[in-house]
What does this fold into?
Amino acid sequence: QVQLVESGGGLVQAGGSLRLSCAASGRTFRSYAMGWFRQAPEKEREFVGSISGNAVYTYYVDSVKGRFTISRDNAKNMVYLQMNSLKPEDTAVYYCAAAGPYSSGTYASDIRDYGYWGQGTQVTVSS
It folds into this structure.
């Protein structure tokens, strides 16, 4: 069982940066691929990026490549989403999620792979 709690959302101007954090419970955090998703009003929840359990591999949706970076600290059971050069279209509720358990080199890009979700944190980018 994994419990996830996001933090760090807020209001930022276009071109600015935010760092989201996700605290995870559980003794086997390293066995889980971690992902970030987002959901804008009246839109489906979409994949943003994922990181493997060993933090070696990452994968991003094209719209955030070069702007967003996912990292994790397995010693602290934390995963982060650093968001730079933010755009108004990045406005959404951002969710942290866990998939697995898997071998440590696995990341996951399919929402159906994720069985554990946080409550979400709002990110608003003003133009």
User: Anything to note?
Assistant: The chain has a mean pLDDT of 96. The two ends are 40 Å apart (CA to CA). DSSP finds no helices and eleven strands in the chain. The first strand starts at residue 4 and ends at 7.
